[in-house]
Amino acid sequence: MFTTAFLDLPALDAAAGEVLLPGSKSISNRVLLLSALSLGTTTVYDLLASDDTRVMLDGLRQIGCEVEESGSTVRITGLGGRKPVSPCSLFMGNAGTAMRPLTAALALLGGEFELSGVPRMHERPIGDLVDALRQLGCHIDYLGNPGYPPLRIAHSNGVPALALNQPIQVRGDVSSQFLTALLMALPLVATQTAVHIEVVGELISKPYIAITLQLLARFGIQVHHDNWQRFTIPAGSQYQSPGSIYVEADASSASYFIALGAIASSAEASNSIKIQGVGLDSIQGDIRFVEAAQAMGAKVTGGPNWLEVQRGAWPLKAIDLDCNHIPDAAMTLAVMALYATGTTTLRNIASWRVKETDRIAAMANELRKLGATVQEGADYIQITPPASTEHWKAASIHTYDDHRVAMCFSLATFNPAQLPVRIEDPKCVAKTFPDYFEAFLGTAVLPAQRIPVICIDGPTASGKGTVAAEVAKRLGYHFLDSGAMYRITAYAALQAGLVIDAAHETAIAQLAKSLPVRFDGGRVYLGNEDVTDAIRTEEAGMNASRVSALPSVRTALVDLQHGFQRLPGLVADGRDMGTVIFPDAPLKVFLTASAACRAERRYKQLISKGFQANIEDLRADLEARDARDSSRSVAPLKPAQDALVLDNSTLTIEQAVNQVMNWWLERQPFAAPAQG
């Protein structure tokens, strides 16, 4: 997961490949709570790992459920009629699928609880659910603004006498989560008599209620409904664990890749987007996004657990659609509209206003940044794409701590103007799809020469490796320590029983072509082996010098280094990154420092590791090495003609990093760069 302040995505050409989706958030949190309320132990497979499921799992532990986690498999031993641990304060983050159902369940289990969340959660309405619970006789107090969390459930003396003889009324036109919460909680008290719920007004998001009803059935509760307006929970209800249950992949998350196939793939089967984990027979209402995408021109085929998408009509066709059945996935249509001929209108989306952010306002704001003409109303949004290629704009997309905003706007990278897109706060996707951007970029097709590279060259001990690694971390880019490549090659050759000499040059070059090298968290890996310490010895340095003298090995390593140029970008440090390896890099920095300064740094480094050293000898060695490196006939140490020289003699690491970052941001087309 990208945890950077922002993620700069270059303009992309096409996409193809296969994507495995994470589990559905809606199903995951429903299953977790139902397991917690049941008698017995439930093994949940393929659970979504996200912020929302984390707060639910933490909450269930707090109230006394036994929870065992092993990767995407979770075992929950439910309360099964036992009282929850109380008093208890529960933090629900920004997870509506945890806050609303837990509020209802705890109100009917008995005990004293406080439920709170992040500031945005305290702006998301819960009053209609509280009103319904108060109808029953529950004692619930608002701790802040009436109608909104945080809440206190004041049942320290147990659940009060409940009024179950009359239907419980709840509004259906704000959020379907209120009805879902009641449907999951009321079986706890429907032991002697049937309990009825009546929906006041239009019920929005019926497919999400259908998910709830299907899952209730899996846990032994058969709820009947009359035209989605009256629901009956039968007398004698008791939750019973199904033993095990699988979480279907998230159909809402599928929408981004369905759109990707419609926008960025070709009509050739080899260039399609294949989605694994959810198919045409999904129980999730958002699978009907397929129909909307087809209406816009996408070619979609599928089976029980997979979908395959290709571009059909191009440009896409504008649509006018009632989106009540796909409220979350419909956001993706708003970005697809950028690639359509004409004006797209998405209607009946009032629920967007009370989600993680005001999604209608958010989508309108960010679409306008890209050059679209947008009109919004209380329950609709209307998008007209930029009038021509010249009307597209490079945009820094504010994501409002909303995972769906971030994921939607990744699709803007396929704009015809070939402009980059900045996604601010990319880590917000952790709510439902932590590895979204890795999956998205894994399908992207782009010539390597268009992937951005920052080169940081300089002499030994100038600090270039430290600075380059930190710049890569801030940008979320890949990192290449070219100096380590020769050390690793020498290490791998010796491990393979090869002598480092001219007689074995061909064999070492062949080995070097496919070395499985990666840099991660300041460590260096050869395959799964951590070789960081092994390649930093004096002997390893001498072996690296011998390897570097073999011409065919140097050629092989050039190719290997080029392989590090992967999306979203690369920061490479060395002595010839800007002059030889990546001569077309948009930013080249030559980091230097005085020999005296570098000798002092090397001296402190060696002393800290327990080695003896003489600072004058180190300085003499560095000066001699500089002379050799600068005068060698192949790839001599020198700044590239267009390099920016940075004297690092008196700078802190942070100062040097900030300077490189500022130079990089100055080269980006975004009006208001974000840095953190």
Task: Summarize the structure in words.
The chain is α/β, with parallel strands linked by helices and 676 residues long. The protein folds into four domains: 6-22 and 258-445, UDP-n-acetylglucosamine1-carboxyvinyl-transferase, Chain (Alpha-beta prism); 25-246, UDP-n-acetylglucosamine1-carboxyvinyl-transferase, Chain, CATH 3.65.10; 448-477 and 568-676, P-loop containing nucleotide triphosphate hydrolases (Rossmann fold, 3-Layer(aba) Sandwich), CATH 3.40.50; 482-564, P-loop containing nucleotide triphosphate hydrolases (Rossmann fold, 3-Layer(aba) Sandwich). Helices cover 35% and strands 21% of the residues. It contains 21 helices and 35 strands. The strands form ten sheets. Strands 29-33-28-34-35 form a five-stranded parallel beta sheet. Strand 13 and strand 14 form a beta hairpin. Helix 1 (25-37) packs parallel to helix 3, helix 9 packs parallel to helix 11 and helix 14 (482-495) crosses helix 16. The radius of gyration is 29 Å and the shape is elongated. The mean pLDDT is 93.
Task: Produce a short descriptive summary.
Helix content is 35%, strand content 21%. It has 676 residues and is an alpha/beta fold.
Give the SSE layout.
Elements lengths: L5 E4 L4 E2 L1 E4 L4 H13 L3 E5 L5 H12 L3 E5 L2 E5 L10 E4 L4 H14 L1 E6 L10 H10 L3 E3 L8 E5 L12 E4 L4 H10 L9 E6 L5 H13 L5 E3 L3 E4 L10 E3 L4 H14 L8 E4 L12 H8 L2 E4 L3 E5 L5 E2 L2 E3 L7 H7 L3 E2 L2 E4 L11 H11 L3 E4 L3 E5 L10 E3 L5 H7 L11 E4 L11 H8 E2 L7 E5 L6 H12 L2 E4 H14 L9 H8 L4 E4 L2 E4 L2 E2 L7 H11 L2 H12 L7 E5 L2 H5 L5 E6 L2 H14 L6 H17 L12 E4 L5 H14 L10
Parallel strand pairs: 3-16, 4-15, 7-8, 11-12, 19-21, 20-22, 25-26, 28-33, 28-34, 29-33, 34-35
Antiparallel strand pairs: 1-26, 2-27, 4-6, 5-6, 8-10, 9-10, 12-14, 13-14, 16-18, 17-18, 22-24, 23-24, 30-31, 31-32
Helix pairs in contact: 1-2, 1-3, 1-6, 2-3, 3-5, 4-5, 5-6, 7-9, 9-11, 13-21, 14-16, 15-17, 19-20
